[in-house]
Amino acid sequence: MKDDAASLYLENQLCFPLYAASRLTTKIYGPYLENMGLTYPQYLVLLVLWQYEQLSVKEIGQRLYLESNTLTPLLKRLEQKRLILRKRSEEDERTVHVSLSEEGKALKKEAMSIPKKIIDSFQDNSMKDTDLLNFQKTLFELVDILAKKSLSIKEGKE
Questions:
Q1: Under CATH, which architecture does the 8-122 domain have?
Q2: Contact partners, residue 87, CB within 8 Å, separation at least 6
Q3: What are the sequence ranges of the domains in the chain?
């Protein structure tokens, strides 16, 4: 009989290096975001708003793979920091639109240097720009697969 215990070894888990890489990457962001008074999730919200200017809460949640019960308190904190504005839709009061305040728009200039600093921290003699771009593409493909799987589980199709 074959021993399948090796399937439970940490080094054989796909999820562990993803988890560890995510935590370590977020840790690298820490000092840059702390200087801006932001947490990593708040930074992600600002990234999508800097790109799209205005989105509904639902659209932000879809882009960041966050549920509204996680996103709402996050948006409230950004609003308290005067970085965003929230406004109910006149057409459908259930929809809340989120946009950047002037302070939120101004913060974009300060944030412009962060992506390069993060990419630079990923590189050593064993990793090249093309390796990172290919890895990013693969990760986005994985996220898409997992999001679909998560949705089907949520809808009870699994």
A1: Orthogonal Bundle (1.10)
A2: 96, 97, 99
A3: 8-122
